[in-house]
Amino acid sequence: MRLSLFSFFLICASISARDEQPNILYIFTDDQSVRSVSAYEKARPWVSTPNIDRLAKSGVRFTQCYTGTWCQPSRASALTGLLQHRLDSIKVTKYPMASYDPKKLPFFPSVLRKNGYETACIGKWHLGEDVGHGRDWDYSVIWDRGTANGRRNSMAYYHGTLVRTNGGPREPLAGYSNDRFTEIAEQFVRKQLSKTNPWFLWLCYPGVHGPYSPADRHLQDYSNAPDAKVPVDIFGPRPTKPERLKDLTRWKKDKNGDPLKYDNLVKKYHRAVRSLDDGVGTMLAALKETGQLENTVIIFTSDQGFAWGQHGLQEKWAAYDANLLAPLIFSSPGKIQANTICKEPVNGVDITRTIHSLSQTVPAWQMHGRDLSGLLNDPSSSLTEPMLLINTTYEYGNTVTEHLENKNYDIFKRRGLTAWMMMRDGPYKYIRHFDEDTIEEIYDLNKDPEELNNLAVDLKWRDLLKRLRTKTTREIQKKDGNFVQFLPEPKERY
Q: Whole-angstrom Cα distance, residue 470 to residue 346?
């Protein structure tokens, strides 16, 4: 009985001390499309993610979240609030490795630390050997994809993962990585009960990145589900797309002319998602049991989505919703509206700016993101600035401008795709590529959500094309995007 009373008073004291600044649990998965979460309309009908759905019912669910373009720059933007073209502090050395110079630009958790937060990072790291322990993180258990053990550790998404605890040497993480990172995160949350300062935890799951390896308990999930529906344009042709995308496909055909092993791959991917859903359930239970749920803001998202045959693709990178749209949920009981939907287009740097607002801290530098607090209070409202996203492949910061100025366009190409910039303006999406003699793209997402009909090749939409081109250029310049003046002239095709 004495222990119960002590625990009760400890919980009350902890909640009282943290009443002004909430705890923040930021769950960040990998390559997880909105189609993999059953709470989203785009999900396949047989998908089941009950715990993520429960989180969605407790907060605001964003349907148009473009967190990032691919794994590494998405994480860099999440830690800085800046789009890729402005990140001079990060350089790709030999992929997947990168170098990071905190003197050029720190990561925002260092600001939270200075404002009373205990900070922690658990899970996947993708920004080099400097994991920021003691500068950004008070506590860290990080899989840094380092090169010490070569490709084995680089690709150890689910098994055989080597982690660094508090910046120390790499040591084996026994077991299934998604589950183990959940266990470590749960332990961290429970230990915070005895402390008075608020905490920020960035929980970065390595799943559901390929090669997909579901947990043993989920190997038979969806076995009786209907075959996964194949996108209509998986093999093309796509007459209104840019030339390199007209007939591009990542899929081989079986003897019947269907995409080889399509259903098997899609279901394997969704089985791997199930452990992420389990992790969300475990974290929610831990917060509730320790009395911390009421004073914790939970953010759930992914670094970006993943295409499964749409436009012939099987990856992120491209500027289409199928490749990019990720789930985004904000939840805080009694503080954020429950079971509401927001359709406003948002991105990863918006999340970073909003974390500052929620934590009542002032950003230490000018960020590109927009504060989403107004949308959390009124999900039907709109933001005054359009949503921008930029993919400059392996290039960051000033090198983007340098390569464009020197007309080194090949540096921005990868696997038949190229760099691009994108803007959402109402129902329209505008795309411009960093490539010579390439047409622009415009899609009316209300009428054409699958982005099959490029309006930019139709003369009757020429005025809209000019307006969106001008507006996108202007908005990017507002965000330090001087590189736009050196972009190759787009090709017009009418």
A: 21
Query: What's the pTM value of the predicted model, to 2 decimals?
Result: 0.94
Mean pLDDT of 170-196: 96
- Write the CATH number for 240: 3.40.720.10
Task: Specify whether 350 is located in the same domain as 457.
Answer: no
| Domains held by the chain: number | 2
Q: For residue 146, name the pLDDT band (cuts at 50, 70, 90).
A: low
Question: Looking at the structure, do residues 399 and 289 belong to the same domain, yes or no?
Answer: no
Query: pLDDT by residue (tens digit) across 333-359?
Result: 889 999 999 999 999 999 999 999 999
97 & 115 share domain: yes
Looking at residue 414, which CATH number applies to its domain?
3.30.1120
Q: Which structural domain range is residue 453 located in?
A: 388-486
Task: Let me know if residue 491 belongs to a domain.
Answer: no
- Give the tens place of pLDDT for each residue, 73-118: 999 999 999 999 999 999 998 887 788 999 999 999 999 999 999 9
